[in-house]
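Narrative summary of target 7.
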Amino acid sequence: MSTPDALALFDAALALDRPVLLPADLRPAPPLPPLLQDLLPATRRRTTRTTTTGGADNGAQLHGRLAGQTHEQQHTTLLALVRSHIATVLGHTTPDTIPPDRAFRDLGFDSLTAVELRNRLSHTTGLRLPTTLAFDHPNPTTLTHHLHTQLVSKGLTAAAEPDAATTPPGLPSLLSELERLEAVVLSSTTSSAAPLDDGARTRLASRLHSLAQKLNGDDTAPDLAETSDEEMFALIDREVGFESQ
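Modeled conformation, tokenized:
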């Protein structure tokens, strides 16, 4: 529909003094656009609400599944678990409709569904989790990182390394710290309360890139975020062949 035709129809609708029936398909696949979330009937099901927040027997089945898995496999298992509970709480038929990086507020979470998700995850993992869990960790991926870190730190699951004979003794703890750092970074970059601006993101990305270069044995590349104007111009001169003789 062209813009003139749309505006003409809109003007005609405003001039009418009676409601008009508009046939339209309001059954889009979830997650629904925010505009439609309040128009469609709620389909949430709460027939299996869980109120348990901890206990010696809670989480035993999950701990058994995670035992012996690598860190990457554990993360995949936990993310699938988190998405499954989110889908159940929101009334979705499959966790495939839950994007791992979609913010909980955009998925349609409110205070009631956030508490229900906390209760389910507390019972499944055996962890004592706060009622603000979904607000402290704003999407399924960051929430999964948090759960994984908590399970590892409390010794509730031990990750198996691909080749224990050749794995340095300090590597598991380093990987655990990296997962914790990754969760903090992702939480900071997706936080709506205090979002990082472009300059802060660039500076953070530069530091992480510099660290990756050092791990790969390349310690010669300068950290551009820490480089002065004079050093930057000197670097450009060297690159284009204008360095003074």
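The chain has a mean pLDDT of 74.
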